[in-house]
Amino acid sequence: MVDEDRRSPAAAVFDALGGEYEKAFAGSAAHRASLKWLLERLGPGSRVLDVGSGTGRPTAAALAGAGHRVLGVDVSPVMVEIASRQVPEGEFRCADIRRMPLEDGAFDAVCVYFALLQMSRAEQSGLVRRLVRALRPGGLLVLATVPLDVEDFDGVFMGQAVRVTSFAARDVSALARGAGLTVLREESVMFTPTHPDARPEPQLFLHCRRDGTEPAG
């Protein structure tokens, strides 16, 4: 379990949302296309880290269903419980990825679907570099975010108060390249979650490969 004194504000938000988050984003064609891109490029039995694994659907479920070894990490105990029940063939851990030890070169792929938005810019940049180091050379990283040039913005997400920090799209791409990734594909879409309190939001999907060189930082 996560130490309550060091618990991320994101945990409270996603504990409250629970399965409603999955329902709201189930219609995302861009997310499904992103997973298809990744699945087409993974070798059999690949080891994949799913950062901000949520309810386990669709990401961990798709990966585990294809025979890959999935480790999902989420700060929300409620989300981890749901994911463990919905995707029993995956492994799920309740932890703050910013503090969780990661072995260099341990994973064939890393997924980061909308898991950075409640971190500071410095934390986002540092985490992406750590995740790149956790990839084997040539490994794949998929990153999705809401590409807005905002810092410590107080907003409401599906009825929950949130404080959001992000980068403009060009800066997200620059962050990935600076961390030692080659961006193979970018997709920008507008998506409206299926929830009465949701609003249309821009989404950016980056599909990347770790360079053979050592990541910076």
From TrEMBL:
Any GO BP: methylation
UniProt keywords, alphabetically: Methyltransferase, Transferase
Organism domain of life: Bacteria
Domain Methyltransferase per the UniProt entry, residue ranges: 48-139
SUPFAM superfamilies, A to Z: S-adenosyl-L-methionine-dependent methyltransferases (SSF53335)
One Pfam family cited in the UniProt record for this chain: Methyltransf_25
GO molecular function, one term: methyltransferase activity
Protein name, entry field: SAM-dependent methyltransferase
